[in-house]
Amino acid sequence: MGKSVSDGRTVVERRSERELVVTRSFNAPVRLVYDAWTKPELFKQWWAPKSSGVPLLSCEMDARTGGGYSVTFGHDADNSMTFFGKYLEVSPLSRLVWTNDESENGSVTTVTFEERDGKTLLVLSELYPSKEACDESCAGMEGAMPEQFGQLDELLVTLGASA
Questions:
Q1: What is the pLDDT of residue 18?
Q2: CA-closest candidate to residue 142, choices 4, 40, 17
Q3: Which of 51, 98, 157, 159 has the highest CB neighbour number within 10 Å of its CB?
Q4: Which of 84, 107, 83, 87 is closest to 97 using CA atoms?
Q5: What's the pLDDT score for residue 47?
Q6: What is the pTM of this model?
Q7: Superfamily designation of domain 4-162
Q8: Tens digit of pLDDT for each residue in 101-123?
């Protein structure tokens, strides 16, 4: 189904009318990759694509089943956008599932982490309520995810060096 976009490291693929899947292998152990997704002070360093020029203003995460998160992008409080939702499942070092509740067309995101010979295979899946919702959001993600994951790669190198 659908098209696949790759920058050589990150593969972004439409698996169905409602699902986008992003796959990437990181040269770091699961513990570091998982921390980068669940610790706000680390998440803030890589999530906002630098090319967008829109910084991440705030990031709050209660990464446990039933906990919530809130991520705000923008230059100031008057020109900002907040993404928020709840964690449906948190299985440390293996799986995160959360809702994206900022709109009625929000997706459910699942991220899995699998360690292979000291590297981490990460698979991110976005499941949308409709084809239209996926069409609207997925185009932006196809461009942003490879850049974001490249930024995560850079952060993991730093974390690995300081570990």
A1: 96
A2: 4
A3: 98
A4: 87
A5: 94
A6: 0.91
A7: START domain (3.30.530.20)
A8: 998 999 999 999 999 999 999 99
